[in-house]
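Trying the structure run again after the queue cleared.
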Amino acid sequence: MRAFVLQDWLTVRGAGTVTTIVQNEANYLSLDAYQDVVFWLQVAEYTSSANSLIVNYETAPLKDETLFAVMTSATLSTPIMTPPLITKVLASAASTPLARWVRWHVTSTNGSAWDMTFRILVAGNQLFSVGQGMGVGGLGAGMGGWPMRSG
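Done. Tokens:
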């Protein structure tokens, strides 16, 4: 597994009509060589008069807003800080499997004032090992992923 930072420490705030905040497109994470992921949501502080805050982990094959779908989510229901919220998405069990691009999307359950300081780490399980048995095209041109012999 390999580790990535989906979002370094950040504070987001919402009030009134701002009930949802989506990660900036420049910070989306490309995970096209991975099949399973585990998200580690670390929250340093959050304040909400709403019932809860929901952090959705979304994926899409292209950076097109209409293509993003929720893979899984984490719900913050009490402002008491706990250990990181760990959420896994396994290819074999996911209703929405991992595509190339991954982002976060925070939503408040009502229109009251809220804020959250957090970071999100990701551990990904690769589809294949880079450099091992790689043939033409990168996915193994020979039997079982082994390179083809010439002559």
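The CA atoms of residues 22 and 105 lie 4 Å apart. Worth checking whether this holds up in the mutant runs.
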